[in-house]
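Design a sequence for this backbone.
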């Protein structure tokens, strides 16, 4: 009997060692940096972007990316971005909504972490007398709860591509989306445009290269990256959850294996998307959805004064 227990104990040690190894740094292969011309963009001068933080939740860095510290507690951002354009404004993701407590409570207990709530996107827009008629839609980077919770308060179409449409129909973690989106109009879009910065196809929202969506699946089936190109020449890549923290790009650090198994439908595809972003990262600001500081170059909607929130 003692041999059996020794065997079980040894197996346990071996499994723990394998688990620990999967948290160690192991940068993925560096891609060839992008040397071609950057895609054309002629953004109108009235274009502007703002961040609308709606709250945060806590996670330790070692769970976020390989090589992250155990005692390094990170606040994960739940932030929406307003992209103003004369042809119609867009939000990228919706942040926490008024019912976020219920959305959190609906998750399995092991996935709930301490969180802080701020104002919802709708409350922030209202506080600055934003004309909701300007809002053309909400482009979600993907349909997980922490990106869509606020949709129930936003009377605007939700932009959905075919792969994400299939994902939300079957995914266990699509429950919040199914609930909040049931009250919303869905705007179906496809990747009808040419390859873009290494991604196989694209969707140019306004036809002027200012806002271009590409498919970057693997976290969910139809996860996307939204490229935003501003009149002052700055370029942004909103990469959703390709990585949870910027080290995914700066250190080429994927999620630890165990977290990939829990969080990604296809980790290999996530890596390919991340490699494409690493290849262009020198040319733009890369914003992983949950990295609080990645939003630093973007003015907060609520702190803007002296400008007109609704350009005409
Ligand atoms: Zn997320």
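Sequence:
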């Amino acid at each position: 009997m003692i041999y059996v227990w020794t065997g079980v104990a040894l197996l346990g040690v071996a499994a723990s060692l394998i688990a620990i190894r999967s948290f160690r740094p192991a940068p993925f292969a560096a891609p060839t940096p992008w040397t071609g011309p950057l895609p054309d963009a002629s953004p109108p001068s009235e274009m502007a972007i703002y961040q609308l933080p709606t709250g945060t939740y806590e996670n330790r860095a070692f769970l976020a990316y390989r090589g992250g510290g155990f005692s390094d507690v990170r606040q994960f951002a739940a932030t929406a971005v307003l992209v103003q354009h004369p042809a119609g404004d867009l939000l990228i993701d919706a942040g926490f909504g008024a019912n976020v407590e219920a959305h959190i409570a609906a998750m399995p207990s092991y996935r709930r972490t301490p969180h802080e709530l701020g104002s919802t996107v709708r409350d922030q827009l209202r506080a600055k007398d934003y004309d909701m008629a300007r809002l053309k839609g909400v482009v979600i980077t993907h349909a997980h709860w922490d990106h869509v919770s606020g949709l129930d308060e936003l009377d605007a179409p939700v932009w959905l591509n075919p792969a994400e449409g299939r994902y939300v129909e079957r995914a266990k973690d699509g429950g919040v989306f199914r609930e909040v989106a049931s009250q919303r109009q869905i705007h179906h879009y496809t990747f009808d445009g040419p390859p873009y910065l290494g991604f196989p196809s694209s969707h140019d929202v306004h036809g002027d290269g200012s806002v271009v969506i590409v498919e970057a699946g693997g976290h969910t089936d139809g996860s996307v990256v939204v490229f935003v190109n501003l009149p002052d020449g700055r370029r942004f890549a909103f990469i959703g959850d390709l990585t949870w923290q910027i080290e995914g790009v700066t250190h080429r650090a994927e999620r630890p294996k165990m977290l990939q198994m829990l969080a990604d439908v296809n980790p290999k595809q996530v890596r390919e998307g991340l490699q494409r972003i690493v290849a262009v990262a020198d040319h733009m600001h890369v914003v992983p959805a949950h990295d609080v500081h990645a939003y630093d170059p973007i003015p907060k909607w609520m702190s803007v004064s002296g400008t007109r929130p609704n350009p005409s």
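The pocket of zinc ion is lined by residues 144, 146-147, 241, 289-290 (CB under 6 Å).
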